[in-house]
TrEMBL record, chain A:
The gene is atpB. The keyword Cell membrane applies. Component of the A-type ATP synthase that produces ATP from ADP in the presence of a proton gradient across the membrane. The B chain is a regulatory subunit. Residues 7-72 form the ATPase F1/V1/A1 complex alpha/beta subunit N-terminal domain. Belongs to the ATPase alpha/beta chains family. It holds the Pfam family ATP-synt_ab. Residues 129-351 form the ATPase F1/V1/A1 complex alpha/beta subunit nucleotide-binding domain. GO terms for molecular function: ATP binding; proton-transporting ATP synthase activity, rotational mechanism. One of its GO terms (biological process) is proton motive force-driven plasma membrane ATP synthesis. It is a peripheral membrane protein. The keyword Ion transport applies. Residues 356-456 form the ATP synthase A/B type C-terminal domain. It comes from Haloferax marinum. This is A-type ATP synthase subunit B.
UniProtKB/TrEMBL annotation, chain B:
One of its GO terms (cellular component) is plasma membrane. GO terms for biological process: proton motive force-driven plasma membrane ATP synthesis. Coiled coil: none annotated. PROSITE patterns: ATPASE_ALPHA_BETA. It comes from the Archaea. It catalyses: ATP + H2O + 4 H(+)(in) = ADP + phosphate + 5 H(+)(out). It comes from Haloferax marinum. This is A-type ATP synthase subunit A. Keywords: ATP synthesis, ATP-binding, Cell membrane, Hydrogen ion transport, Ion transport, Membrane, Nucleotide-binding, Translocase, Transport. It is found in: Cell membrane.
Length: 467, 586
């Protein structure tokens, strides 16, 4: 291992150094400043005689006399089951004052892609206890389902609620499957981090969690490593140790900002809005690390959270995310200001893996039809609201008024359940039927006739009328 | 590589620099697009630029840990695919490495580096049945025998296009591996089942003809309103969540092509797994055999190396052309061409090329048109006819169709299926916007529909389109004044249009019966709604209030036709019932 004192240029998070031996791409570097501080970095570009190094902890304090040491290996994450219950910083060092971590193995953090042939298609329903998710946008094991939120909205509460309540309804006789949470925070404030930590501690979730925190005032470049450390840990727990791992990554927007910062420092040709052209590939390398593998016990399920700048879902970050992930959950500002908790707007939300994870034997035989019909009915009610603003309710037909009522009750009863209530899927569907039964049978054109026979509540209309 | 080329150049070099998938090498004597093996691990790459003694290479695998000074070995050949029996029922990555073989070779569910495998099994014995005998004259492209490749597909062994051809001196039936000679010619040329072909070059054909037959998809809105021809091109652009992939899957499942090549380019891993798990269990609607028996899958998911994403489209179309040469109708689905374009952009930016629009390379339009031009209805070089239809999904950022990939694609393709986020949000699936979409094949395909389905197919379709157009206009007014403010006849038009949308345009891909709708049934549903329309307007003229017309019990049954297996009788009964109930009102 050779040490160099050959730094030629320092620019933003990048350091350029001259070398006289070949250095591998992505290799890890230690830079020691004259003050004795050690910083870690990674080789971004390697050519004969010159390497570009991206420094995780920021380049402050580095001068041309700093010494550069190449460790001869790519960045690794020490993994062990003992990580459960631990709190680490954004580059994987413990910060909870606990004992030193003795790794079983050190894994490359740039995970290799799962061979699509070896994957198992996710179709096991995860009950989150949140009606708007379970009923309308069902989550399954091995899925990646982001939360599209924006500043000032309670996405963290929703993430916590899901982390707390998520279970897989087991059939009798099955062994209790082990559940773990890996939490990767990128650039969130200390206050937000405390919120998460307190909730983890209060509910006892911490002992089955691994927490990585890169705070808002930690170096931005470190953020590009944090999710990879988290996912490497998650993959180890899932595919080697058989845990069902839920990975929560927040906030992906900060991650992408860090990518842009590095791209700009490298003087790369920028893509849309200054983000690097390879952002799709980069994000895919994170999100695609969710899944199930044939013959392996565990699974990795991802819930990345991102805040859409200006509530704009065509912004490159939500846009590219949506193209990679298997659906999205929208947090809605209007619903939030109406006091609906959680303020999930089911209309733009989607779970792509829902169809195979629900139905008879998985959830309930009426699930797909009920969810379809509620979407259609809520969408119709929403449309009519625009009209009501112009012509008033009296001008509308009886049928239209029923849809308007449906939309109201859908928000107030189905979506609005509070962050502390945990509904079983049967409860969720029953509430759905209660609402659908306010519409005439003939309007339920997406539900199988036999199911209407079985579940339609004949007296619902009269109840509504009396009320 | 084909036998006709000169002795390969083999001159090895050393890596000069590494930056992600782009590696430069010094002293490598290579030609453009030669395949090289990079570094100690032998990662596969392709030469994309030569400047002085510096050669730039795009590497198809992860380059972490690779450094300057490591060797680069030149194969002297461009990127080729192995063609021969065994490609159907296979699943490949972007450079035609079989993923199942990779899994067992690597001993891990994760894709490791530096492992190579031929595209077809070189050892496996196939049952060869010659169709020529000694003394026959054969020319390049001629079929010399057949191999039962799968239960559905008879693989035709052809004289490679690079051969001169001549008189057959030996042809015997029996079991052979793909590398063994099955037919010998008098000039010493030996025909095997195995051919190689450089992916970036189209395979030769005699003539491109005007397509006149539809690629029947079993999807009402496609067959009924916006058909694509066998040998045609189509684009499906749409924002995320609007159903591009489901539409592509539906086409791969139900289109009446002989062979389907499905290219998953930079898309989700779980989606490809779904295809891998679903297709073997589904039956081909034409033959009843498993769907995989006619399908070749190419999966280069979004987290697999970006350079292989750039090449997977070419790998797919070359395989498609090979089956076309056998006289088959091949449909190629590319999901998504935007990811392919982005891969070009990513590599172009690493090369520090001058960017064109939105950072895409200036040659984007040329590459897209080059690709779509490889589709068509062809006379093959042996005089047979075969086709390649190409259906490309496009994923425009933010759902904005004005971006370069969509716009450049639309300049080339003749069928446009515009997916619409609003429709998807309403759970109107397939979420194809009928006002924006078009098919330029309509006129040349109508004769087929008239002959094979019903005489008045074009007229019925036009009636449906007119009603939908009228609805679009009326809806603007309704947005302002409400439905009840419209005159009765316009209200009725809206009601008819609603049935067109719900019963005809919507189709449930996940319902066992509704998922496939034969053209006769598509036509049947349309006429049932037409009957309702005619009878309803008669009732209206006779003075029946529009509310009463809307309220008849039979009308909502229109929405149930799609799920009926015995639709023919159901439609006849329903037409009678609607007529009866409406005539009772006056």
């Amino acid at each position: 291992m050779k040490e160099y004192q050959t730094i030629t240029e320092i620019s933003g998070p990048l350091v350029f150094a001259e070398v006289d031996e070949p250095i591998g791409y992505d290799e890890i570097v230690e830079i020691e400043t004259p003050q004795g501080e050690t910083k870690r970095g990674q080789v971004l570009e390697s050519s004969e005689g010159l390497v570009a190094i991206q420094v995780f902890e920021g380049t402050t304090g580095i001068d041309r006399n700093a010494s550069v040491k190449f460790l001869g290996e790519t960045l690794k994450m020490p993994v062990t089951e003992d990580l459960l219950g631990r709190v680490l910083d954004g580059s994987g060092q413990p910060i909870d004052g606990g004992p030193e971590i003795v790794p079983d193995e050190r894994r490359d953090i740039v995970g290799a892609a799962i061979n699509p042939y070896s994957r198992e298609y996710p179709e096991e329903f995860i009950q989150t206890g949140v009606s708007a998710i379970d009923g309308m946008n069902t989550l399954v094991r091995g899925q990646k389902l982001p939360i599209f939120s924006a500043s000032g909205l309670p996405h963290n509460n929703l993430a916590l609620q899901v982390a707390r309540q998520a279970t897989v309804p087991e059939e009798e006789g099955d062994e209790e499957s082990e559940f773990a949470v890996v939490f990767g925070a990128m650039g969130i404030t200390q206050e937000e981090a405390n919120e998460f930590m307190q909730d983890f501690e209060r509910t006892g979730a911490l002992e089955r969690s691994v927490v990585f925190t890169n705070l808002a005032d930690d170096p931005a470049v470190e953020r590009t490593v944090t999710p990879r450390l988290a996912l490497t840990t998650a993959e180890y727990l899932a595919f080697d140790k058989g845990y069902h791992v839920l990975v929560i990554l927040t906030d992906m927007t900060n991650y992408c900002e860090a990518l842009r910062e590095i791209g700009a420092a490298r003087e790369e040709v920028p893509g849309r809005r200054g983000y690097p052209g390879y952002m799709y590939t980069d994000l895919a390398q994170l999100y695609e690390r969710a899944g199930r593998i044939e013959g392996r016990e565990g699974s990795v399920t991802q819930i990345p959270i991102l805040t859409m700048p200006g509530d704009d879902d065509t912004h490159p970050i939500p846009d590219l995310t949506g193209y990679i992930t298997e659906g999205q959950i929208y947090i809605d500002r209007d619903l939030n200001s109406q006091g609906i908790r959680p303020p999930i707007n089911p209309l733009p939300s989607l779970s792509r893996l829902m169809d195979d994870g629900i139905g008879e034997g998985l959830t309930r035989e009426d699930h797909a039809d009920v969810s379809d019909q509620m979407y259609a009915a809520y969408a119709e009610g929403e449309d009519l609201r625009d009209l009501v603003n112009i012509v008033g309710r009296e001008a509308l037909s009886e049928r239209d008024n029923k849809y308007l009522d449906f939309a109201e009750r859908f928000e107030a009863e189905f979506v609005n359940q509070g962050f502390d209530s945990n509904r079983s899927i049967a409860d969720t569907l029953d509430i759905g039927w209660e609402l659908l039964s306010t519409l005439p049978k003939s309007e339920l054109n997406r539900i199988d006739e036999e199911l209407i026979e079985e579940y339609y509540q004949e007296d619902a209309e009269t109840v509504e009328a009396e009320a | 590589m084909s036998q006709a080329t000169q002795e390969s150049v083999r001159e090895d070099g050393l890596i000069a620099s590494v930056s992600g998938p782009v590696v430069t090498a010094r002293d490598l004597d290579a030609r453009m697009n030669d395949v090289v093996y990079v570094g100690d691990e032998g990662l596969m790459g392709e030469v994309i630029e030569i400047e002085g003694d510096i050669t730039t290479i795009q590497v198809y695998e992860e380059t972490s840990g690779v450094g300057p000074g490591e060797p680069v070995e030149n194969t002297g050949e461009p990127l080729t695919v192995d063609l021969g029996p065994g490609m159907l029922d296979a699943i490949y990555d972007g450079v035609q490495r079989p993923l199942d073989v990779l899994e067992s070779k690597m001993g891990s569910p994760f894709l490791d580096r530096g492992v190579d495998a031929p595209g077809i099994d070189m050892e496996k014995k196939w049952e060869f049945e010659p169709s020529v005998s000694e003394g026959d004259e054969v020319a390049p492209g001629d079929v010399v025998g057949t191999v039962p490749e799968t239960v559905t597909i008879e693989h035709k062994v052809m004289v490679p296009p690079s051969f001169e051809g001549g008189e057959v001196v030996a042809a015997e039936a029996g079991e052979f591996s793909v590398t063994e000679t099955v037919v010998e010619l008098d000039n010493g040329e030996e025909v095997t089942m195995h051919q190689e072909w450089p992916v970036r070059r189209a395979r030769p054909s005699t003539e491109k003809k005007t397509p006149r037959e539809p690629l029947v998809s079993g999807q009402r809105i496609l067959d009924g309103l916006f058909p694509i021809a066998k040998g045609g091109t189509a684009a499906i652009p749409g924002p995320f969540g609007s159903g591009k992939t489901v539409t592509q899957h539906q086409l791969a499942k139900w289109a009446d092509a002989d062979i389907v090549v499905y290219v998953g380019c930079g898309e989700r891993g779980n989606e490809m797994t779904e295809v891998i798990e679903d297709f073997p269990e589904l039956d081909d609607p034409k033959t009843g055999n498993p769907l995989m028996a006619r399908t070749c899958l190419i999966a280069n998911t979004s987290n697999m190396p970006v350079a292989a994403r750039e090449s997977c489209i070419y790998t797919g179309i070359t395989i498609a052309e090979f089956y076309r040469d056998m006289g088959y109708d091949v449909a190629l689905m590319a999901d998504s061409t935007s990811r392919w374009a982005e891969a070009m952009r990513e590599i172009s930016s690493r090369l520090e090329e001058m960017p064109g629009e939105e950072g895409y390379p200036a040659y984007l339009a040329a590459r897209l048109s080059e690709f779509y031009e490889r589709a068509g209805y062809f006379t093959t070089i042996n005089g047979d006819e075969g086709s390649v239809s190409v259906i490309g999904a496009v994923s425009p950022p933010g759902g904005d169709f004005s971006e370069p990939v969509t716009q450049n694609t639309l300049r080339i393709v003749k069928t446009f299926w515009a997916l619409d986020a609003d429709l998807a949000e309403r759970r109107h699936f397939p979420a194809i916007n009928w006002n924006e979409s078009y098919s330029l094949y309509q006129d040349q395909l109508d004769p087929w529909f008239v002959e094979n389905v019903k005489d008045d197919w074009p007229e019925e379709r036009q009636w449906g389109v007119d009603v939908l157009d009228e609805e679009a206009e009326l809806r603007e007014i309704v947005q302002l004044v409400g439905k009840d403010a419209l005159p009765a006849d316009q209200q009725l038009t809206l009601e008819v249009a609603r049935y067109l949308r719900e019963a005809y345009l919507q189709q449930n891909a996940f319902h066992p019966t509704d998922t496939f709708c034969e053209p006769e049934k598509t036509y049947g549903i349309l006429t049932a709604i037409h009957t309702f329309n005619d009878e309803a307007f008669k009732a209206l003229e006779a003075g029946v209030p529009v509310e009463e017309i809307q309220d008849i019990d039979a009308a909502p049954q229109l929405n149930r036709i799609g799920v009926q297996e015995d639709w023919d009788a159901y439609i006849e009964d329903l037409k009678a019932e609607i007529t009866e109930q409406l005539r009772e009102l006056y």
